[in-house]
Amino acid sequence: AIINAQKANIDLTFDHACAIDLATKGTSKNVVEAVHTSVNPQVIDCPPAEGSKRSIDAVAKDGIVIKARGRVTVRTNLASFVGGATEDTIVARVGEGIVSSIGSEQSYKDVLENPDRISKNVLAKGLDSNTAFEILSIDIADVDVGENVGAKLQAEQAESNKLVAQAQAEVRRAAAVASEQEMVARVEEMKAKVVEAEAQVPLAMAEAFRDGNLGIMDYYRMKNLAADTDMRSKIAGGDESSKDDQ
After folding, report:
1. Residue 190 predicted with pLDDT over 70
2. pTM for this structure?
């Protein structure tokens, strides 16, 4: 490994090589692979090809989902190889950067027109800090358009607003029905009071007879007046019925 590093003009001392060898002992990596990756850069898929996710999904400001796949070219940073973050950290940081960059675009069309702008924005974030690798380039391998999440959310919000409006209308209808029933009950109550008051009239007349405040002629005049009023009411009612028939 030291010879290969010297041939590639890479500064790798014996002590550093021993430290890398001890740090990678028991893992799938070793100092030879570290030097090899430093000479021949490695390409990391983002998201990983063996993973369950086939793309990184992000939403632009217009609500359209963008499905992107990136390829990150890295080489080993021997100076921070011991204790530095691994490939998983690179993949996570690049994925986060892609999502953030797509989310800052006004429209999905801007992403389709300039996918290289995403890679430039992500690369400028310095995502390889404190990792065992140095990022050489970030390339957007594929960009697809997904569903319109914004429109879907607006439709769901509209449906929710409709249900709320229907519930409020039902509350108002129930209140109106209750108020109507209350008015009916009050009318019946008033009618009962009128009947009760009318029932007091004969008692008052009887008391007036006993006290001498009402004579027999007064009583007959009152009866004649009531009969005359009743006759006039019937005649008026008959005239209105005749007009309706005509």
Report:
1. yes
2. 0.54
